[in-house]
Structures are given as C-alpha cells and as structure tokens.
Amino acid sequence: MKATLTDLHRRTKDVMRPVLAGQGKVTITEFGEDKATISPVVESETISAEDFRRLPFRDEDIVAAIKDFRG
User: Fold this and answer.
1) Which of 7, 26, 27, 67 gives a 20 to 30 Å CA spacing to 38?
2) Residue 4's pLDDT is what?
3) Whole-number pLDDT of residue 71
4) What are the structural domain ranges in the chain?
5) Of 42 and 13, which is predicted with more confidence?
C-alpha cells in the first residue's frame, strides 16, 4: 500500500491499519517519490553460536530444528 505524507498526517490510523494488523507494509510518498516504508515488527529469537552450529542445512530441517528448539 502507498500513502502520501499528507494522508499519514491526516489519517494516521487508517494508513497504519494494515501494518498494525500484520498485513503488510506502507510506503510513504512525498511529491510522488517513495520516502519511507513502515512495516510490522518481525519478532526474532537469538540462539547461541553452539546451537546455531548444530542446525541442519536443508530448509525443512532448519524449520523443524527451530520448532524443536523453541519447545
């Protein structure tokens, strides 16, 4: 979704709604040029280097290992 800086100023809640719902990001434009992107916070988790070294290399194995690690 794109919104102008004026839209953001006047209708902040409407512009932010998709971001707050985790449905995507909003690109803010000024005079037709992209100036900023607002996106949802992506939660991350930190693991030790030792645990990282034990992770497998295939994508599906990595996903399973992360699920196991989280419990």
Assistant:
1) 67
2) 96
3) 59
4) 2-38, 43-71
5) 13
